[in-house]
Amino acid sequence: MERDIFSSYIKSQISSDRREEEKAYSSEQISWEEDRESLNILREISSKLDKLDKFTLSQPVAGTSIAFPQSQTMIQNPSNIDIAIINGIVVLPDNGIFNMNVYIKDGKIHSIGRNDSIKAAKTIDATGKYVIPGIIDPHVHLGLFAPLKTELVTETKSALMGGVTTIGCYFGGPQSHFTSFPQIMEDAKRLSYIDIIPHLVIANDEQKSEIQDYIQHLGITSFKIYMNGIPGLIPDVDDGFILDVLEEIKKSNKDCILCSHAENRYIVRRASARIRAEKGENATVLDFTDTHPDMAEEEAVMRLSYLAEKSRVPVYFVHMSSKAAIERLRNIKPKNKYVHVETTSPYLSITKQGIKGNEFKMEPPFRDVEDMEELWKAVEDGIVDTIGTDNVTQTRKEKNNDGPMWEAIAGYPALETHLTSVLTEGVVKRGIPIEKIISHMTKKPAEIFGVYPKKGTILPRSDADVVIVDINTAKEVRAHQLNSRSDFSIFEGRRLQGWPVTTIKNGEIVVENGVFVANHSTGKCLSR
Q1: CB 45 within 8 A of CB 92
Q2: Domain named Amidohydrolase-related: which ranges (predicted)?
């Protein structure tokens, strides 16, 4: 079979990547004992935070922060530092914010703390700014309306400008993934500016039968199904198919996860038929909301949560949009360790009351204010694990934006506005502690998809993917000023606050003072 032909090639690619990582690790000369010391320090910090009566950030930048004591630095081998980020407010996800420096060497976080005697080849003064791990967007689609090779360049550049350094990208199609994915890996390494966590869509019996081979030969541990597909484009699957997929994943004995677009297809189709009959060609994007009632999402999360628990395989609900589904998950999740939940930055920023025009057409659709507030509540209390975008890059023409609503394609670009929209709504407007927000955008997706602590944190030996954010910078979004190949933005004209000013990827400055300065690709697909 084709998978046998590609097996040796893929293994050599994975082995090569791992040899490069091992070589980089060994060059740092940091012992495991020192790593344990670093983790012990973080545990001590976390313990101190737990003892505080209240730790909030009601006023970003000017709010409470905890100084990192001189005696508790993680400085190791201070010679030959490539980049020193000094005087910044460092965000350690789930732990807090700390006034300390970050030192980078050979593409990795070398150490964190305070040591004014360290000299670096490049020093960045981050006074008054947040220093955060590179953002991980776990939910992205590329190459749907333009060649993947094109969007591996344009959209990953746009991502870096928005502080996103790693994406989880879904790859589909009706054929065996062995026919396409090896080339995708090669193209990503050659063209992408950011790293990619690949997720494979399982849509037919052939792909289902090859799941264990994808795990063994391609290093893939995350898969996706559509409980409600798009007629003519993406097939939906029934419960028997879902159980088969869960069973195949279970056989691997690896930490795998099944992602799902969770809507009851029969409820959606019934509602869609009614709206078509009532509104016909006069239906608007507001009417589209009624074609995907919240009960469709609510029922699907209950059903798949049950199947996951019985199969003992983790599931990941993508783009949760409704209060009804979140309320169900609030009851399910504490009792079901197999359930993980994602929402998106657009759903946390936009409601149906503020939409007009086909550019806002999305599946699931934008909902009411009470739905958005319930999503934010779920972010705060941890029912929501991650925040993605569900980015689907397309132009107005490709989306059929000026045609009838029924013919417009769902989706929009959102990578470059991802971080700033969440900071605007979460930190600036609602006063949610930034370390909590950033955890949902860095550490949590890294943990769920098997790339932590390589990604998702600022710890010694983690990849040096770092973003410096000015929370006080506010500007109006204009699509022509963004870097996506798309020509529209759902945030057009909206004033967003908290923009990245500098992005570091793999220890290299790729965005400096808001200007893209990278001159070569630095990304690859991450095997797990």
Answers
A1: yes
A2: 130-510
- CATH number of the domain where residue 452 is located: 3.20.20.140
The DSSP symbol for 423 reads I
pLDDT tens across 116-168, in order? 788 899 999 999 999 999 999 999 999 999 999 999 999 999 999 999 999 99
From CA 198, how far away is CA 16, in angstroms rounded?
18
Based on the structure, what is the number of domains in the chain? 1
Widest pairwise Cα distance in the chain: 73
Q: Is-contact 160 516, C-beta < 8 A?
A: yes
| Mean pLDDT, residues 334-350 taken together | 99
Partners of 67 in the β-ladder: 99
Helices in 196-264 by DSSP H: which ranges? 205-209, 211-213, 239-251
Asked if residues 445 and 138 have their Cβ atoms less than 8 Å apart, the reply is yes
The 8-class DSSP code of residue 234 comes to: B
Contacts of 288 (CB under 8 A, 6+ apart): 275, 361, 365, 405
pTM of the model: 0.88
C-beta neighbour count of 45 within 10 angstroms = 18
Residue 44 falls inside a structural domain: no
Residue 437: inside a domain, yes or no? yes
